[in-house]
Amino acid sequence: MWLTEHETDHLRVQCRVIRTLHREQSKYQDIAVVESREYGRMLVLDGVTQTTLRDEYVYHEMIAHVPLFAHEGPERVLVIGGGDGGTVREVLKHKEVKRVELVEIDERVVEVSRMYLPELSTSLDDPRVTVRIADGIEYIRGCRSEYDVVLIDSSDPMGPAEGLFTSKFYGDVARALRRGGMMVTQSGAPFFMPGLVRETYEAIAERFRSAHLYLANVPSYSVGPFSFVFAAKDHVECEPVRRARSRFKTRYYSSEVHRAAFALPVHIKDLVEGEPGESGASIA
Ligand code: SAM
User: Fold this and answer.
1) Which ligand 1 atom sits closest to the C-alpha of 59?
2) Ligand 1 in contact with 136 (CB < 6 A)?
3) pLDDT in tens, 5-33
4) Which of 175, 199, 174, 177 minimizes the C-alpha distance to 187?
């Protein structure tokens, strides 16, 4: 049996599946958990791989530790999306963090992750964590200067996640952040989604004084480097301000990897900083 992911109209990626452990249509999306030969258990939403037990640490460490080590003293963190719990697990490794709120629109993703992905979802039982089942777009509208770090760990911009990639939403996030606040969002794969990466970066740069793209190599996203946008209310160079190594074990993140992640290949740097169409990667 093969899981086929449609990357573009002309590119499909397949991985061999041993068995399907769960499949349902929730109010928002098709939710599947499969056992695959290469990646172990995989969470798949509407046919798009979200996370796999073999390589989930790459994405979850890089979405969480870059902002949390760039912030002088992160105490209150909001995660929008992230119903599998992987990002929350990494956030909780920072002892400074006193409260984590997870706002996930689809309760079934949380419940299915609790059943099949305890390596990620047990983090949601931590006493510092509050899980809210709500639309992050609505939720953020009611927040004012409440969070030190906001992480947008969402699915790609379709269905309920579409509104999480707009300038209006990023303006609401900026208002929800305290002084010195930081945000990171996943922003897709630059090589095959140059438009998404550029538009996301531009929408964020409109609302924050600092916006920087950074990269990580997530094997199961199998479309080249994966990007995140780091944004800060004040001018910051997004360097790690606290030593990472001495504090807890990681498998991908380190202070060196943190710095290197912001060193962009020319065609990606041009994509976000150059004139439209200047990038070598923008495919017609
Ligand atoms: N991409 C992550 C990773 O690589 O590990 C996992 C992402 S997590 C599973 C994505 C979550 O975003 C989904 O559970 C989806 O239900 C949630 N989501 C989508 N739109 C949302 C919204 N507007 N508000 C809150 N959660 C949302």
Assistant:
1) 4
2) yes
3) 999 899 999 999 999 999 999 999 999 99
4) 199
